[in-house]
């Protein structure tokens, strides 16, 4: 018997916190708004409840916490009404899956950000009436990053509720410091989030930098300490964030003149209290090591990224993880926490 067979068969369950549902009405709405090839990908993958259950069986996933992925629900600049409607419909759809299969499905509710007022209504409805497990927030919301002052009422409310935010990447929509005449602007939502660099699909590289930008902004606005009861799950083992920590900490003290201190040690303290990182993507055999300078096994959770990672690749990657994980986490207890225990802790908060 290969050693990973032993490991997998000893795991009672695997909880997948990074995986997506693609309802037909959302596919139609995003396609109509120009996101039929989202983030420079060839198309929106096929999805059905049955296909998801089948994947779960193949990949030994006992429970999937579903979310809407990029581009989210705010699709047209100024289209607040449509964004609210699409968020509600998406959340109702996911809630129905969870209601019918509570042991197999949970969900992160989508919000119509950057519409703050609409998001406050939706998060209350999703957490109080739809039994959502937390919310998904994108790395930027038409150019506005988590931590922005504009979003403070939303973070205040999520903090009051001890909520979990799953931070998911989307395409960049950033200020260009050298050329601010075309900058999208932080507080007007004039630009669709379809900036694409060098004709590569944005998930390949830009999603990693988006995660780095979003988390860095949470630290450099002190949002992490202002709202200490929010937990975050960061996609793809943090993307490009781990190698950026020393650098932004240095910039914070040397150049930014912030009224609070950020050091790599303070980042580690916040991580140990509030942050989780998922294993979606090719985090094994190599990427995981950068993250391990900052967190231990209690802060790592499993993610498949199905169906944006096709089923056969989810199974293939699971094999790579199983092959490498015993070397990185020799303790069986640590591996159980990564595959389910930590996710159970997160879900128990919701
Ligand atoms: C799922 O579990 C079975 C039985 O323990 C094992 O043979 C199989 O390799 C596992 N599949 C994956 C993708 O880990
Ligand atoms: C949030 O957590 C704190 C500390 O554990 C607890 O006192 C408070 O009741 C919780 N609030 C909610 C709304 O669950």
From TrEMBL:
PANTHER family: 2-AMINO-3-CARBOXYLMUCONATE-6-SEMIALDEHYDE DECARBOXYLASE, AMIDOHYDROLASE-RELATED DOMAIN-CONTAINING PROTEIN
Keywords linked to the UniProt accession: Decarboxylase, Lyase, Metal-binding, Signal, Zinc
SUPFAM superfamilies attached to this UniProt entry: Metallo-dependent hydrolases
Domain Amidohydrolase-related: 15-347
Pfam hit, one: Amidohydro_2
InterPro entries xref list: ACMSD, Amidohydro-rel, Metal_Hydrolase
Name of protein: 6-methylsalicylate decarboxylase
Signal peptide: 1-19
Catalytic activity: 6-methylsalicylate + H(+) = 3-methylphenol + CO2
E.C. no: 4.1.1.52
Organism this protein belongs to: Aspergillus keveii
UniProt key word Zinc: yes
Family classification: Belongs to the metallo-dependent hydrolases superfamily. ACMSD family.
Catalytic EC class: lyase
